[in-house]
Amino acid sequence: NPLRTAQVLSLTERVDLSQHNYTAFLNVLALPLIPWLGVVSSFNIVYLLTTILTALCTYALARRVTPATRGEAWLAGLAFAWSPALVARGTGHFSLVAAAPLAAFLLCLINADRSRRPRDAAVAGLCMAWAGFCDPYFAIYCLMIASAYLMPHVARISFSTASAPASLRWMMNILIVSVGGLVIGLLVGPGGRFDVFGVPISVRGLYTPVFVLTVLVLARVAIQVRPHVWVPT
What we know:
Number of strands: 6
Number of helices: 10
Largest sheet: 2 strands, antiparallel
Low-confidence stretches: none
Number of domains: 2
Order of helices and strands: EEHHHHHHHHEHEEHE
Radius of gyration: 23 Å
Distance between the termini: 49 Å
Helix content: 55-70%
Oligomer: single chain
Structural class: mainly alpha
Mean pLDDT: 86
């Protein structure tokens, strides 16, 4: 079973790799190269092939859904495949470098929507499976992409002109300013630790505070525009 191994934590039972960042697709690419070139050279070649494949899929997506010229689509592929986010992941989170199935999934989803052919829908499903074998997060990203793409087809959003209660808007503004100040403090300082009813809370990283700030800002916008989602009959 390739998803279970005894090569790590050998004093225990075989370790289940299905919930880990197990780069199955990249492993398959490297499998025939390792006996020939070794681990390091195979890694470098697979990394290069992965980024090129990501650029090509992004190029095809840009050509399909926009009036971009070949040069413009080439720049789109270059900007995505070698973006700072993906390059940074290559130093410690290698599975997230294989972002080609994200662009391929959106491309196939658009093709399936326009053609309404089962074959194109099946190809989109295969791209989602491909994404899952690159990184489990990417399968979730495909679901998010599909939801964002299909939502305008099945629902409509209207906005209310009535203003929200002033007390609610004031409270949200205070929360946003407070959490924003915490984020700024973490940017310039090491963070700290405090107790809430005897429970120690450590705040040293930006991940959770920025997430909370994002949720608060989105909630504040929703309070301001008061969106209403309805399904046309």
